[in-house]
């Protein structure tokens, strides 16, 4: 890779042309990705892509006047110091705020590139063009704000806020709730079966830890591989997988931790089991509260469903362990 100081004026222009072309495609991909979820913001990125295309034409015109029709095969990836762009396949179904932040970073990097390139260039016309582009990129944050004002009307903002809330539910709350329910309920049977079969706190803790971690990995992979979000609009599968996996593991670990009570304590098993049972009740009520708050389920109905289900699983583990 070349350092920036080693670039010739011809190579600087070639890198700038390739960069503007790539940024334009990235903005268009953002626009296509947001078209259904956030149509007003999609129009903003379409206009930003068109702006990058105009910059590319300005640079190409300057290059042809100065160096002719042939571009050297060099891109910013060939130059040290450039931050790499997020791959296209990782830009799908990103939250709107993340996409806007990505665009701000792109504009900042472009402005820095043009400012530094203008300082290094000795050709007056090229230096002027690069300096002008640096100022344009510097003002792009204001330009983006003006574009948002033009497209994001009050009704459009309300619609996008509703969509953002729905995406939050689909991408974080729903997989997290499913994971928490699975971790809290499914690990009850093996944990309490081991507890009443061995009446040994340390062995019970190991069984609960293994069940929690195993369930977290299983649920995370199942969530990530079940739906790529392209049709359902549920967002990035790996974000959902991580959220679901972590909440599953946490749901199982919380009522496993009481079995760290040392076996040397008097009545250590019953102390740990009593604390674990109390923690289970807290977990089930938290799940019921989340369902009531985010999933429009009446609290008493959610509490009844969760508590009854958890009690059945808990008793099955105790009966199996005590057999």
Secondary structure blueprint with pairings:
Blueprint lengths: L8 H26 L4 H29 L28 H25 L3 H15 L1 H12 L2 H33 L1 H11 L2 H26 L10 H18 L13 H27 L4 H24 L1
Helix pairs in contact: 1-2, 1-3, 2-4, 2-5, 3-4, 6-8, 6-9, 6-10, 6-11, 7-8, 7-11, 8-9, 10-11
Précis, in short:
This protein is mostly helical and 323 residues long.
Features of the shown structure:
Ferritin, elongated, 323 residues
Question: Could you walk me through the main structural features you see in this protein, from its secondary elements to its overall organization?
Answer:
By secondary structure, this protein is mainly α. The protein folds into two domains: 4-152, Ferritin, core subunit, four-helix bundle (Ferritin, Up-down Bundle); 158-322, no CATH class. 76% of the residues lie in helices and 0% in strands. The protein is built from eleven helices and no strands. The protein has helices spanning 9-34, 39-67, 96-120, 124-138, 140-151, 154-186, 188-198, 201-226, 237-254, 268-294, 299-322. Helix 1 (9-34) packs antiparallel against helix 3 (96-120), helix 2 packs antiparallel against helix 4 (124-138) and helix 10 runs antiparallel to helix 11. The longest helix is centred in the middle third of the chain and has 33 residues, at 154-186. The radius of gyration is 28 Å and the shape is elongated. The N and C termini lie far apart (69 Å).
If helices are DSSP runs of H or I spanning 4 or more residues, what is the number of helices? 11
Strand content: under 5%
Rounded Rg: 28 Å
Whole-number total of structural domains:
2
| Amino- and carboxy-terminal Cα gap | 69 Å
Mean pLDDT: 81
- Rough shape? elongated
Which structural class matches the secondary elements? mainly alpha
* Biggest beta-sheet profile: none
Q: Classify the helix fraction into a percent range.
A: over 70%
- Low-pLDDT residue spans: none
Q: How many strands in all?
A: 0
